Every structure is written in C-alpha cells, then in structure tokens.
Amino acid sequence: QFFVKPSFRFKYWGFAWVPAPSHTVGHTLFWVMAVLAACVCVGAWFRVAAPLFALGFAYIQLIDATTYLNHYYLAFLLAGLLALSPAHRAWSVDAWRRKATVTHVPSGWLWLLRAQVGIVYTYAGLAKAHGDWLLEGQPLRIWLSSLTTLPVLGPLFAWDPAALLMSWAGFLFDASIVVWMSWRRTRPFAYAIIIVFHILTKVLFPIGMFPVIMVLSALVFFPPSWPRDLWARLRRRTESSPTPAPAALRPWSPAIITMASVFVVFQLLMPLRHWLYRGNVLWDEQGMRFSWRVMVREKNGTVTYLVKQASTGRQWEISPGRYLNHIQENEMAGQPDLILQLAHHIKRDFAARGFGPVEVRAEAYASLNGRPAAYLVKPNVDLTQQRDGIAKADWIAADPQLPVPRLRAISAAH
Fold first, then answer.
1. Is the whole model's pTM more than 0.85, yes or no?
2. Among candidates 334, 336, 348, which has minimal Cα distance to 384?
3. Could you tell me if 343 and 363 are in contact, meaning their C-beta atoms sit under 8 angstroms apart?
C-alpha cells in the first residue's frame, strides 16, 4: 500500500534517482530487513547486519516522501549510529562466539547517543514555542475535541482550558526533560515522567512508534554500567557471586571526535534552516522535514489542477486522485513541494499522451490549525516553470496570518 502499489511516488529533493521496488523486491526487502533486525538485536554478524539494516531502512524511507515521519528519520539516525558503534562487543552472539569479554568502550558513543536523543527532545520543545501552541492551545484543541467521548478522560478534554494546559505541559516537558535526565538526583523521577508522558501520547494520538522509540532511547542518559549493575543485583538474589566491575570508558581518537562533532553540528543546524526563508514554516513547509517539529500543526487541504494546452488553449480540471492513492493525496494537499512535483508529473503525462506542451496551475487551499482555508499555492503561477530546490519558493502563497479560532472543545466535537 505504501511502497509497491502506488503508480507515482513523491521524491525528496536530491533523491529523485532512488528507484521504486517491484512487488517481489519490495516484499523480499521487508523479509530481509526482519532477519537483519533480529541479527542486530542479538549481536550476530553485527558488523554486516547493522550497516545493511541502516541502508535498507534509508532506502525504504526514500521511496516516497509522503511516508516521512519524524520517528522514521530518528530510527534511521539511531540505526546508523548503532551500525558504527561497538555495540556487539558484549552480551552478544559475536562476543560469545569469540569468547571475548569487553568492559571498556569509547566514551564518545555514550555522549553521541545522548546528544542525538537530547536534540530531538529539545527541538521538539522549541518547535512548540509559538502563539498557536502556547496562546491558543492549537492544534491540541482540535485533536482533543474528537476525544471527548472517552471514558474518564473525555469530560476533562471537553473542559475549555484543558487544551491550553496540555499544550504548556507538552512544551515544558520537551524543552526541559533533557536537563532533568542529565542530573543524577532527578533522573529516576524524570524517566518515570517520560514513561507516563509517552504512554498518554500513544493512547490518545495516532503517533506510531515514536513513544516506544523515545522511552527506550532515553535510557542512554543513565550510567553506562546500569545493565551490568542490574544483572548483578538479580544474580545476588539467587547465588553468591562477586559484583562485576562497572563498564569503564576510554576516550576516542581525535579523528573520530572530529567526525562526531561534525555530525552533531549538522544535527544542531539542520532544524534551524527554516529561519533562512523568513516565512511560517508550518505554512510553507520550507525547512519542515528533519527538524523535529513533532505534532505542532493540523493542516488540511484540497487541490485541483488546471491544465491548459499551449497550442489550442483547451483546458482540463484534473483531480490528484487520478494519479495518487488516498494516503498520498492527503499528505500532498498540505505540502507545496509535493504539489509542485505532481504538477510536473501531470505535464509529462500529457506530453506522453500526445497533447504537447501544457501549462499546469493549481487551485490549492489549506487550513492551518483551524483557520479558514486560504490559497497555499499562487493560483496564477504555471507550476511547470518552477523548480524545487533549497531557495525561497516565491510561488508559494503567503501565510494569511489569520487569528486562530478559539472554539470550545465540546463545540468542535459536535
């Protein structure tokens, strides 16, 4: 449904060359990925399985941009870091086969993983520092309005201040949790809050695997010897055995420190690139992906393409559903770069069918966080003459900057 059946696939900028899999290749790839994941999990042939898993996961995500989710991007980054790390040197099939006992690992891997998880949380918090989230409780107000019939919590969600209070709680959690997890005295309590927070988001919202990934990834903030310490305490309950020494840390080489620093700087700068465009990133989407803007906007749209034959002036109205499945159409309607990609595909399709050169314009309306729908793309622009890239997209309509409607959650539900 996501990777094999679509007849047209949206591409990330710079990755249009990535081929789509056939039915056989697509299904085979997922079975191979399952085997590789099992090998990584138990540390079997780790130096081969882990890199192949990371590459396979990257390929799956590059097949179609409409499948992008922040936690898929995070999973790829963690898979890549894991593939490069010495994670297989203890408690693994590889270590058992080599009969090797390793207690020293480069300390840089611990701090690199902490930095990656910390960046996700911190930028997720910074992304919520805007008026819609902190002053109007949007888009949580919209989402909670559909949950007012839930037992126990439903009446609470119907309470008008609930959305604003939960918005502030989410902002404060994301923006500060790394600090509390980095402090030894508050770490156990902070981790308990992480578990409760992510359980609630998993229960209330269709957020996929993100809560599970974050709950497990946050364990890197604990001392590196905690699994050995836990194992020692469990053994002491059943037998008399000495406590193993904590896993010691040794430094990285200067070359690896340099490469790791470049990676961290890139991860710090990538989410900030939207400032170069001087627009509302939630509206124009320039700089939206790969920036950890988790659950910060509710955006709906409709798109109709207007095709005009250059030689005769003949015109057609084209629905995106002619080329896309329902999932692709929903994702495309709120993302200008995807609207542009489909316009170019329509041009190629008409040329292949013998209609010659055509102009393609789009009547694209979008609603952001409950505002009235407005033009997302300038309707008088021939999109076939525009190119996607990293420059400011002047063909995207300006954010209407209308005030967010403050509706009572119970009214929105009705």
1. yes
2. 348
3. no
